Amino acid sequence: MKAKCANCQKIYDIPDERLPQGKKVKLPCPSCKNPIELDLRSNGADQASSDSASSSSPAAEKEQATGDELKEQIFKSVKDLPPMPQVIHKARKVMASPNSSFKDLAIIFVTDQAIATRVLKLSNSAYYGLSKKVSSIQQASVILGHKTLAELITMVSTSTLLCNKLKGYGLEAGQLWEHSMAVAFGSRFIAQKKYPEFADDAFAAGLIHDSGKLALDKYIFERHEIFEQFMANGGKTFLDAEKEILGFDHAEIASEVCNKWNVPEELATGIKYHHHPSQIQDNILANLLHAADGIAMMSGLGDGIDSVSYEIEESSVKFLGLNNKEISILMEKVVTTVQNTMQEFK
Ligand SMILES: [Fe+2]
Ligand SMILES: [Fe+2]
Fold first, then answer.
1. How many whole angstroms from 64 Cα to the centroid of ligand 2?
2. Among 96, 179, 180, 276, fewest CB within 10 Å belongs to which?
């Protein structure tokens, strides 16, 4: 059977015995990776068609996009993501200013009672180790300090951005949030030991390190068969699949998301290289995020199909000066902290 790719116009001669008869199938074009759709049902068996020939639905048209065109489409779609809640910007200002006070934070609670309730619940979680429960935000501010309180606000507000189901990545509702918390706490724990001045940035960047997935998910889902085939052909990671099929990975698109959310540049750079810290010279944040990401995945707090074949770069382990014992202690600590925190979120 002859099959023509609508995108690159290449024609392939596929032996009939290699095709499942009586079905409609999609195969990735070996040249440009665009899906080629073949209708092998009896009424369509004679026609070897590419995507555009077999369908003119908007979804099919979207699937035709590839290379630069697809990249442009995805970059544009970043603007449709929900905005970073304003409260996070306010909280960040408070964290950055040693002279800020409870009054600076109070306005947040006046406008958002739901955040106040969750923050209060979290203040009482085991992680913050209070000897007696706090019953008001003001009390929490006095005992925990407004910096910690601002961090709790950031954590609660970010959860609204990351708690949805991501079908393309095979993530149930809440799973990306759980993984993001694991990376936030993990990065902070490593930073506290190795680079204490980076602890706050590491936590904040960890919370949103995989935000690029929010932008890519729908495009991956539209191409899920191509992704499945790519993975079934063995040996490669899902990150490689993103790169080969879409032309770039979720860490690269995260820079665009960070831009939209006005995330400081040093955090955005660390996030951009969180899978390949060796590609950027001695970037502390990228190394912290990368190691914490690996620790989260090894601890079972991964993120769906993305965790398959994930490994911490040897150079990163060396850069951070981590040994195996420290890594297993960190794994345990991250699991306990995330479990306790998630409980307060229910
Ligand atoms: Fe990632
Ligand atoms: Fe991750």
1. 29
2. 96
Q: Domain 86-345 carries which CATH code?
A: 1.10.3210.10
pTM to 2 decimal places: 0.76
Closest ligand to Cα 183 = 2
Taking the C-alpha atoms of residue 6 and residue 228, their distance in angstroms, rounded to an integer, is 21
The per-residue DSSP string of 186-228 comes to: HHHHHHHHH-GGGHHHHHHHHHHTTTHHHHHHHHHHHTHHHHH
Q: Rounded distance, CA 136 to CA 140, Å? A: 6
Q: What is the sign, positive or negative, of the torsion defined by CA atoms of 289, 294, 300, 305?
A: positive
CA–centroid distance, 273 to ligand 2, in Å, is 11
Ligand of minimum distance to the alpha carbon of 213: 1
- What is the largest distance, in Å, between two alpha-carbon atoms of the chain? 75
Q: 124-130: long-range contacts (C-beta < 8 A, 24 or more apart)? A: 124/344, 125/340, 125/341, 125/343, 125/344, 126/340, 127/337, 127/340, 127/341
Write the CB contacts of 83 (distance below 8 Å, at least 6 apart in sequence).
260, 261
Q: What is the pLDDT of residues 141-183, one digit of tens each?
A: 888 887 788 788 888 888 888 999 999 998 999 999 999 999 9
